[in-house]
Amino acid sequence: MNDREKEAPVKLELSGLRKSFGGKRKPLPVIGGVSLQVRKGEFVSLIGPSGSGKSTLFHLIGGLLKPDSGEIRLDGRVINGERGHIGYMPQQPALFPWRTIEDNVVLDREVNGAPRRESLEEARRWMERAGLAGFEKAYPHTLSGGMQQRAAFVRSLLSPHELMCLDEPFSALDAFTRSEMQAWLLDIWEETRRSVLFVTHHIEEALLLSDTIYVLSGRPSEAMRRIEVPFPRPRREEITETPEFLSLRRELTNLMKEEQRKSTGMPSARQN
Amino acid sequence: MTRSTLNQWFRSAWPPFVAVLLFLTAWEAAVRFFGIEAWILPSPSVIAQEASSSASSLWMHTLSTLQLTLIGFAIGSTFGLLVACALHLVPLLKSALYPLLILSQNVPTIALAPLLMIWFGFGLLPKIIVITLVCFFPVAVSTMDGFAQTDRTMLNYMRMIGAKRTQIFRKLEFPHALPSMFSGLRIAATYSVMGAVIAEWIGAQKGIGYYMILQKSAFRTDRIFAAIIIIVVLSLLLFLLVTLIERLVVRGGRRGASSEGGESR
Fold first, then answer.
1. So what's the architecture of B45-249 in CATH?
2. Spatial separation of the C-alpha atoms in residues B210 and B223, rounded to whole Å
3. According to a count of CB atoms within 10 Å of the terminal CB, is the N or C end of chain A lower?
């Protein structure tokens, strides 16, 4: 991370966030005090064992759920339980099958009341960068999984909200497509420098893409470790072979293994 | 493309076509061979002859029935659609009325027809009410099913980006429910023809149902058969009309089946 970014204002701040499910009699704590920061123009990843409440955390940020305690601040303002402040990319592309690709891509802007012509212009520009030129009028079911995922990413990129929340966006793709998508995302992101909160359980992916990584513990999850990723930008995939990268990867892998071991034997994870 | 679909259509169409042809031949042969009297079972050729010689009167009755069917179908389906939307948008209304709606289907609508005649006379109104009652249910239930089956990831996405309730309904739930709405409309289309005919049985001065009652008392079995064929054709035409509209309205490779069939993966 360079100095410019260090001084960038805080975009999103979570402080002491807690959330339990299952009523008062037998509460099941899922988020047990998560605090983290995303600065403006920073790429932040969250990694953690499966069932560490990553999706729940996103639902809290998106305002679908209200935290039991703690604060979610966006640009310094508390937004607990408020919707419509973020761009979002879900695990499945969730493109609407009855909309053409370009109509899908502008959906977020449409919902937020942006003028259609402007949105379409912007959409065409980014679709070209996503290798989707010529597919503007195609329907999603005619596209490959990777292309659908790129369309979903462009949709979140076009969101009028600066902060993008990406929820394990590549987890449903095969390994090859996945690494292609990572390189592509890296490229696009370094060009746009949006504030990103990225959830993944893929350590290498997190190291390749992020400025900062938070490691979540098993349930009830806390942000137990913050790691600044030292590689300079613009990054290329080659950094994955440097000794520095490998040692960071080993460190993270050990951390994750330990957490995973601690959390097995617990009741099955609440996932959605 | 067109050619191959035509070929495909031809390949799937000829076996049932031949089967019908064989059936008709067997029917014709059996009637002739056993010398069955025409008032019990007329042969297909006799029916065809009779149909063509009384074509003008049949046509008049057909038009009358068609008109009644279309009016009833339009009103019943619209009503069903509105009820589905209302129940979906107001959960309390749904939990109060949905069970009653299901229960009400144990009342045979057709059996209500005589009652409706008593209340509303022999005009158009009671007949339209019968068809409306018959059409309403399949449309309402399948549309509500469509709403309820809205894709969870898409719904979640809409909520995450801050879509309002009306936006979620207009942009997601309604278009998502279209295929299952249309499968309800297809059922309603065939039901509506049946509803019209039965309404005409009970009290009318024209229409295919009225014509059937008239011919029954004259033991004109051949004419009754002609009427049945017309009913079948009417049902099919209405069914095709709904399918055609569906093709125009439902986009993105989802027509026909109401399920997603993994194509969004």
1. Orthogonal Bundle (1.10)
2. 12
3. C
CB contact under 8 A, B161 and A64: no
Nearest CA in chain B to A111: B163
Is A131 part of any domain? no
Q: What percent of chain A has pLDDT over 70?
A: 94
Whole-number Å distance between alpha carbons of B196 and B55? 20
* Domain CATH code at residue A248: 3.40.50
Which of B161, B251, B253 is closest, CB to CB, to A84? B161
- Distance (Å) from the C-alpha of residue A242 to the closest C-alpha of chain B? 36
Residue A198 lies in a domain: no
Number of A to B CB contacts under 8 A, please give it: 82
Among chain B residues, CA nearest to A146:
B265
Least Cα separation, residue A47 to chain B (angstroms): 21
The confidence band for B263, taking pLDDT boundaries of 50, 70 and 90, is very low
CA atoms of A202 and B151, how far apart (whole Å)? 27
Question: Long-range contacts made by residues B259-263, C-beta under 8 angstroms, separation at least 24?
Answer: B260/A97, B260/B151, B263/A97, B263/A141
A140 assigned to some structural domain: no
CA distances from B93 to A91, A127, B83, B145, B178 (A): 34, 44, 10, 16, 22
Domain contains A166: no
Q: Do A139 and B252 touch (CB under 8 A)?
A: yes
For B127-157, the pLDDT digits (tens) are: 999 999 999 999 999 999 999 999 999 999 9
pLDDT tens, residue by residue, A236-250: 888 888 898 999 999
pLDDT for B208: 93
Question: What tokens does A122 get?
Answer: 């912007």
Domain ranges of chain B: 45-249
Give the number of other CB atoms < 10 A from CB of residue A17: 25
Domain assignment of residue A246, given as a range:
1-82+212-272
Element (H, E) at A19: strand A10-21
Least confident of A17-26, B42-51, B65-74, B256-265: B256-265
Q: How far apart are CA B228 and CA B231, in angstroms?
A: 5
